[in-house]
Each structure stands twice: as C-alpha cells, then as structure tokens.
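hey so u asked for the seq, here:
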Amino acid sequence: MNIISIKNVALGLAFSATVFGAKAQNVITEGQASYSIAVGGQTANATTYFKGDTSSLAFQRGPAQIKMVGTKGGEFFAVFLDVPVASMKKVAIGTPAEIDEAQANEPQYAFTKTEETKKIGDFNCKKYVAKDTRDGSTYDLWITTDVTIPANMITKFYSSLGGTPVLFTFLQNGNVKGAQVVTLTAVTATKVPANMFKVTADYEKMTLTDMQNMGKGRQ
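ran it, structure tokens below
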C-alpha cells in the first residue's frame, strides 16, 4: 500500500470517527431538561433531572416549591413540598397501593406516524397522533431524534417511539380536564445534583393521600 492510500484510509477512519462521535454526543444519559407547561391559560416552567430510570420534575406554584421524583417503571414515586416562608418541608412517598391506583388511571396510547415535520425551537420534529384507547381522544405529538434522553415521568408514555418528545400533551392523573401542553425548550448534559432523588432527613414523611387531603383542607 503506498503513502497516498495509507493517507486516504487514515482520513476515512478519522472522518468516520468524527461522524460517530457527533452522533454519540446526541445521546444524553444524565442531565437536565427544561419544559414550558401550559394549562388553563397559564404557563409555568419546569425542570427535570434524569439519570438512568430515575428522574425528577420541579416547578414553582405560588410560594411552594414542588418536586416529583420517580422511576420509569413506577417502583418509586414521591412528591416533595418545600414552602420556605412557612418553614415547611414535607415529602409524600407513594405506597404500593397508591402507585398501583395512579398507574391504573394512566392513559394507554396507540400511535400513528404522519409525514408532517417542523422545527420547534432548536429541534427538528416529526408529527405523530396519539390516541388514548380508553376514551378515543387524540393528541398531536411531536418527536425529535436530534437528541435522545431517557424517558421521564411525563414522557414515559411515548418511549416506544424511539425519540424525544418535544411538544406533547400530559394528562394529570390521566384526567382529560387536567390536560397540560408541554414543550421541551432545552436539554443539557450535566451531573445530577447530590441528593436530587433522595428523601433527606429534613423532610417530614407522609403518604400521597395525606398530602392530597392537606391540600383539600387549604382550599
């Protein structure tokens, strides 16, 4: 093999490695994602951290900082409530019965792929139609393959599509009346902060039912 051929092979291998590396960079296994959530004419921002099968979703509601932590399969789910002005820190940890009940109310989707495409923010997306087989209601769903991240608590319903949901509808507790339109705005590869998924000793523990009843008492 002459020198020119060797150079060509070397350049070819280098180019292949560069392309492969670029593709690999689009797969993020640990990091942070930001969402804009619209419901009832109002918009809120939420942040999720993810690593493996575990994720968190945090947002602000009035003076309260709320964070949900759960595993993709539902083995663990907790809601953290932090109200600094009231010196209140509580965590509701789902019992097996509570988790089973919540999963029973989750939507069951059948998907239809369309030929429509559009760019949403920085993401090139393809459109799917998600049909809830429980009641026949349908929702538009936009998926990107520009970046791949693990499914989290609000995107796990779409994991079979092999991409990352960018614009989709999330049904709170499977309730159509609580439908939230969610838009992915940014994804960053970063380390999950320490204790992000843990129940630390400074939180008072209770069940999900207890926290729900506490909220009803304040209405």
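The domain at 30-218 is CATH 2.50.20.10 (outer membrane lipoprotein receptor (LolB), chain A). The chain has one domain: 30-218.
lmk if thats what u needed
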